[in-house]
Amino acid sequence: MEADKIYINGTVQEDFTFNERVAEVFDDMVCRSVPFYGAVIDCIAGLLRQMACPGATLFDLGCSTGSTLLELSRRLEDLDMRFIGVDNAPAMLEKARRKAAMFSRTGDIRFVEADITSVDLSGADIIICNYTLQFVRPLVRQDFVNRLARHLSPGGILIISEKIISHDPRLNREYINMYHRFKRQHGYSELEIAAKREALENVLIPFSIQENMELLRQAGFTSVETFFQWCNFASFIAVKPPEGQDG
């Protein structure tokens, strides 16, 4: 795993983008930038173990280098599920395919290069958007979630993980301080932290827990809950009503 040194000099030449340079260090970047990343995947695997039907089709929108799909396909192998990873970054998908081949998972997982807002989601029983929705422009975010709800099968599951904000100014500041402490503990310098924050400023726009849950409820999901939170990161599960039942 190549170490993330993209912002080691504290310089920002462009807004953050999922290019080839980022793809090569992305796995290290995620481990050092997303608190309890592995624990969230543990929770997702446990929930799907209990709730997914054998033969279900799972889409991971914004799959990046495929780490989530690789782990889920390994842990849920006996459920004979179809795993489809979707991303619009060729460099990310190239690395995802290399990893799938390395771990002999090319028969379990298919990767598709496409825009997640328009990709064909036919047959979706489960959709995962891990740290993806925050990159969808706020003005179209509700429409995007509505589309996911429409394409999910009755009783289908949507799982979302996001960076979040608090509308309480003091708590929001304390959460950010905790997050920066986390990044320092994982080897990032103050220069790197500041540069990464600047690069993401116009690209990653987080909502609060309440705003994310309202998106899901407005889309018609009946059961909507958080299943994990660490300061300014949270994960949600939403269940579409079974056929014949209203939201």
From TrEMBL:
GO terms for molecular function: carboxyl- or carbamoyltransferase activity; S-adenosyl-L-methionine binding. It is an enzyme of class 2 (transferase). CDD domains: AdoMet_MTases. Keywords: S-adenosyl-L-methionine, Transferase. One of its GO terms (biological process) is tRNA wobble uridine modification. Residues 60-156 form the Methyltransferase domain. SUPFAM superfamilies: S-adenosyl-L-methionine-dependent methyltransferases (SSF53335). Its EC number is 2.1.3.-. It comes from the Bacteria. S-adenosyl-L-methionine binds at Y37, G62, C63, S64, D87, N88, D115, I116, N130, R197. It catalyses: prephenate + S-adenosyl-L-methionine = carboxy-S-adenosyl-L-methionine + 3-phenylpyruvate + H2O. HAMAP family: Cx_SAM_synthase. Belongs to the class I-like SAM-binding methyltransferase superfamily. Cx-SAM synthase family. PANTHER family: CARBOXY-S-ADENOSYL-L-METHIONINE SYNTHASE, TRANS-ACONITATE 2-METHYLTRANSFERASE-RELATED. Catalyzes the conversion of S-adenosyl-L-methionine (SAM) to carboxy-S-adenosyl-L-methionine (Cx-SAM). This is Carboxy-S-adenosyl-L-methionine synthase. It comes from Desulfolithobacter dissulfuricans. The gene is cmoA.
